[in-house]
Amino acid sequence: MHADNCSIDDWNEALLEELLPIQLAAPVLLACDDETVRAAGQRLGLSPALALESLLAAVKAAHHVVNHTGLGDLSRASGRFRIASCPRGTPPFFAVLCVVVLAASRMCPDGDRATSAYYPILRDLLGLTKEQGAIEGFSDVELLFPLLREWLHVDLKCARGHLALPDQPTPRFVGYPISQTVFRQRDREVLTTFFSERIARPHEGIDNLRLLRRWGGRHQLTRHALDMVMGDAFADRVRAAISGAYRSWDGSILEGDGRRSWVARLTLQTNPARILVSSASKDELHLIWRDWSALLYAGGVAELPWSALDAAATTPLTIAIDGSDDTMQIPTLGMSVLFQVREDQASGWSGLSRVRSVDDGAAWVLTREPVLISRHQASITETAGLPAPWKLLFGVRGDLLPMELRSLADAEAAPISVEGGLAVERRTYLVGGGPRLVAGKLDEDVPLAVSVDGVGVGMLYSGRGITLPAETPARHQVVVADRLYVCDYEVVSKPGSSPQYGELRYDLDHPSALMRGATADRQANARTVCGAAVEPVHAQCVPIMRSSSQPVLTISSSGVGAWHHLTARPPWLNFPELKHTAVRWEIADDDTAWVICPNIMQVIQWRLIQLSHLDAAAADVVLMVAEHAAVEARDGDDRVARAAWASLWELAIEEASD
Amino acid sequence: MNAFDTLLRWASEVGSSSWQCWGDTAHYLGLEPSGAARALSDLGHVEFDWVANRFAAAPPTAILLPRSSGCILITGARPGGLRKRIEALATNGEFDVEVYPEIAQTAGPATWLAEGRLDDFGAFCGELGIAYAVQSGRQLVGELAVANIQTAALREHPHDRLPRDWFDESRRTFGPPARTATPDGWWRVHEARRKAYYVYKSGEWYRVPVREYAPYLACRASTFLCYNESAKTLSVDSLAPLPPLLARAATLQSGRLPLRGEWLGYVNVDGDLAEAIASRLGLPFQGI
Fold first, then answer.
1. What are phi and psi of B177, to 5 degrees?
2. Which of A531, A102, A95, A388 is nearest to B133 (CA)?
3. What's the Cα-to-Cα distance from B204 to each of A61, A328, B176, rounded to whole Å?
4. Which residue of B49, B73, B198 to mutate against A (max A Cβ within 10 Å)?
5. Is the ipTM of this complex over 0.85?
6. Of A497-506, B18-27, B225-234, B243-252, which has the strongest mean pLDDT?
7. Contact B58 A585 (CB under 8 A)
8. How far is B251 from chain A (nearest CA, A)?
């Protein structure tokens, strides 16, 4: 988009979204600085170089900002806004207020004489002649900032937060924009290093202000910012400023004079071996280093020469970006570089990414350390294209790596977090399964006191954790140190709702049945397996169980008799926990028609089958038992069984006479 | 009660959730998530959807074990209170059923067994609201298709940016093949979440989604199964564990996970079932 195409309304909306996104009732600041303008410009499709120019042009055009009127037109815009009925749209003077705050952010780091330091900066921004003293119409900020606060509170019902304003700013007018700036330009540079080192990803429960207070690099902040960070008087405003700065952070480190340094992300490809570099930049970068150059598209990768790894062994490597003062930095890599297989859920990319520490699982280690290579000979994996003396070790467990390769200082990891536990819902755990409060690398190597519901439960050390209590159902609050980290959790004996079982089943009728696991979808009337249950159920043969120790003769449907004797329990069932008291043993039901136990004169008709033949063994037993036995049917009518037995007896007589 | 029992109890209370939650809880309990998943799946307690990355507890089910003198194995979900209900019902005199103490096992949750009159089992389970099945392991194998390159693999080339290695049947180990050759056989590719198995055959790559089938598809010259009729034990080379449903069928013959070592020993497996398992893997029974 061209710089001239963005109207004041475009900028009002872009800056509103950038500075005051939806965040119910949170204290907020209108902390507009150059980074914010750049980020808002990106929303409008403007390049960083054009963003500020476009904003200032829009402001000057909309409010007729010229030398003899200054900001005098603002009173008209604010007057109309003040009398409009609620709910009102974005204040038309929103972008102007952002510009006046932008000027404050550019003030000298530790300037004391605020008024005389401020106006020249604002005049310079607005292109007004260099004069001494206030700018015409500037005093209206005394009305505009409170009006903005009112709009956020009344019209938006604090949906975008409530604006933190001093009751009596000092100086009277300039104090307003200054109050909205916690961090000056210099501070922003320092903050990018803080973000990169400590909060590359947002972490729930962590108070970033307290984290900044503990960060070793905090002394690089301006005195103004450091005073505000370390004091409690403006804590909410500082938190709002940190959040705002983080939101507009593009992932680079500001080096000073507006130069940026992009942290290189390295990935390793095998087959053949290549080192690839990428960055968080949303612009195309033309990388140049010695006689190597490559075009790195936004979101893309470029292949690094192996000599770059050699150069980064002992010091960070700086790669120039053609046409810019910005650079790309490859951190000091040492003699060994760790990689782990990582997956990017959003893009679907997966591959070997460089990591600074090894979490669970194993690492791929690209190394040229003879000792490491010797120690892990069995892990060496050959891969084409790997120049000597580099070797690639596969599957090396983290705990087997030298200490210097294992680091807890990973910005991706939360400094403090709640992990594990028998969670049935978010922050809800089963009795007996309390979560662990875990600390990463803490900046100050001092243990932190942990309390639950106001009662101390232990100290938290860097890289360690403690289990939180969960003996009985209750709600709890965990506080670490001076509220550096706060978290609520609940312990329950059962989840609130009854669990549903059988959600996933194997569909055996699916064409890819052997290529998939259980799924939630299945065809109607399909054959399925869920746990031990197969559906539809087919009738299976149940064995014949005996509770008497006496031997048994079974007669099959073909008239064949077979003797069965009490069998010992199979060896696999000989567990010490099983103290068998009752006599039970089983006989395989091989198409059995009759079960006869002569010693106790028991006859059971197992199946209703008319036999036409009896072998000698069966006939002998039938004759021996004869009419003395108690005859019963397994299922069905005993009278029918007795009648069938009588027929069988006659058959046995016939067989015997033959 | 070991960590597996606790994991099963948690899964039974949750009912179903994501693989991420499974992994977090397993780690919390000191268990390796995939191994724990395998154990609980083989025992019929939990099902897993590897595409949607979800798990779900199976309904509680009792199955009659063969050659067990009338024992039922109670598997599936184990929500809090179920054990007490089972024991209370067994002792109230209404049924001739005796519930045995839990039998611990090292690499899985405890085995729940009960012994009694066969005729009482159906009503006993009905009273508890749990399903009752007979010989479901045998039926399960009977319902499965025979595995071959068409039924168990997809033609797909692995990503070249991911490292891979090849199974040397003579050395029975994975490693790099000759630098530039791509020999036929069983390949392992190291993906983000897990190792994926492929078969390379006659110039074509095949991905084996249920990776346990891969060695049986690719390494016909190797012996991965062995059966002992007198001991009624099916032994499986630990390099080539049985695919999930076949492993479950074998495991449900006893409710005990296989004895571990270089070979996995499934007990109480009769010849018919061993033959059926071999045939589903495309192997002749005589060969094992």
1. -80, -170
2. A531
3. 67, 42, 19
4. B49
5. yes
6. B243-252
7. no
8. 10
